[in-house]
Amino acid sequence: MPEHTVALNRRARHDYAIEQTLEAGLVLTGTEIKSIRAGRANLAEAYARIEHGEAWLIGAHIAPYEQGNRNNHEPTRTRKLLLHRDQIAELIGRTQAKGFTLVPLRLYLRDGMAKLEIGIGRGKKTHDKRRAIAERDARRDLARETKARVRL
User: Fold this and answer.
1) pTM of the model as a whole
2) Looking at residue 1, what is its pLDDT?
3) Would the pLDDT of 19 be above 80?
4) Which of 2, 6, 28, 138 is the most exposed place for a label (fewest CB within 10 A)?
5) What tens digit of pLDDT does each residue of 29-45 get?
6) Which residues contact 78 (CB under 8 A, 6 or more apart)?
7) Rounded to an integer, what distance in angstroms lies between the CA atom of residue 142 and that of residue 146?
8) Considering only CA atoms, which of 34, 28, 10 is closest in space to residue 104?
9) Phi and psi of 64, rounded to 5°?
10) Within its chain, how far is the Cα of 78 from the centroid?
């Protein structure tokens, strides 16, 4: 069964220079996974943190399941990430280095299981963001010109 992307953190690659990515599982309740399968998740304000040797996803919004009852989940609760001990140790070492942080990039389903792609990134400065925007615009203009020349 192919992967199905449910939520994408579009600002992450704009605000951070991602150096490495890894995949983590999520500990979810029944109504959370049903809501994710319905495509009702948002990673815009989310971030990841390592606390007491465990990885946590904080601030991700998973909408309450519409057919759920009073036992429905809280939308922005903190969720545990499933990683191997050596992966957590590596993340601790990398994030303690100056300027690195854990950024959730993408929430997706693979074989019926919810997975989260986490990036280890360094925050971009304003001038880096402007340079990236200028390069993207230059590539777009170049592609537009080459397409126009091919038509002639």
Assistant:
1) 0.78
2) 61
3) yes
4) 2
5) 888 899 999 988 999 88
6) 56, 57, 58
7) 6
8) 10
9) -60, 145
10) 15
Joined tokens for residue 81: 């990430």
pLDDT digits (tens, 9 = 90+) for 108-143: 999 989 999 999 988 877 777 788 888 888 999 888
The rounded distance, in Å, linking the Cα atoms of 93 and 14 is: 24
- Please state which of the four CATH numbers 3.90.650.10, 3.90.1010.10, 2.40.280.10, 3.30.470.20 is assigned to the domain occupying 4-124: 2.40.280.10
Nearest to 51 by CA among 24, 78, 75, 77: 78
| Residue type present at position 62 | I
For the record, the structure tokens of 56 come out as 């946590």
Q: Which helix (H) or strand (E) holds 144?
A: helix 126-151
Spans of all domains in the chain: 4-124
